[in-house]
Amino acid sequence: MQMLEDGERVRKLFQGVSEEQARWKPAPDSWSMLEVINHLLDEEREDFRVRLDYTLHRPGEPWPPIDPGGWVTAREYNRRDPEESLTQFLSEREASIAWLRGLSEPDWGATADAPWGPIRAGDIFASW
Predict the structure, then answer these.
(1) CATH number of this structure's domain 2-127, picked from the four choices 3.40.50.10860, 1.20.120.450, 1.10.10.10, 3.40.50.300
(2) pTM for the predicted model, two decimal places
(3) How many degrees, rounded to 5, is the angle at CA 49 between CA 47 and CA 55?
(4) pLDDT of residue 3
(5) Rounded CA gap, 44 and 100, in Å?
(6) pLDDT averages per 10-residue partition of the chain, 128 residues
(7) What are the residues facing 120 on neighbouring strands?
(8) Rounded Cα distance, 122 and 66, in Å
(9) What is the C-alpha to C-alpha distance for residues 30 and 28, in angstroms, rounded to an integer?
(10) Which residues on adjacent β-strands are paired with residue 113?
């Protein structure tokens, strides 16, 4: 499964990276590795899985609001522990994979009204 492989790739990218390297930003308006992994963590647990669940199992209900760009500073991603952030992301990824495997005949054609317009469950999954 691609999502499993992607989680492993992320883990390997962090191997041998010091805390200083994880916090480093190539430019003031760029994200550090630590900010990226925490973005992935929050996307994993608050965006894709939640939105796909709503689309498949709660048709017509509005999605909970998210603010991925704002969370970087509001949640102080770059102050977090790199190892703990990676561990949490990998744990959430495993939970997502288990959740996906537990779906019984999902309707990938089910649609939700996203803020930008209609989107199909299959498109949410493909974007994940």
Answers:
(1) 1.20.120.450
(2) 0.91
(3) 95
(4) 87
(5) 12
(6) 88 95 97 98 96 96 95 98 98 97 97 94 95
(7) 111
(8) 20
(9) 6
(10) 118
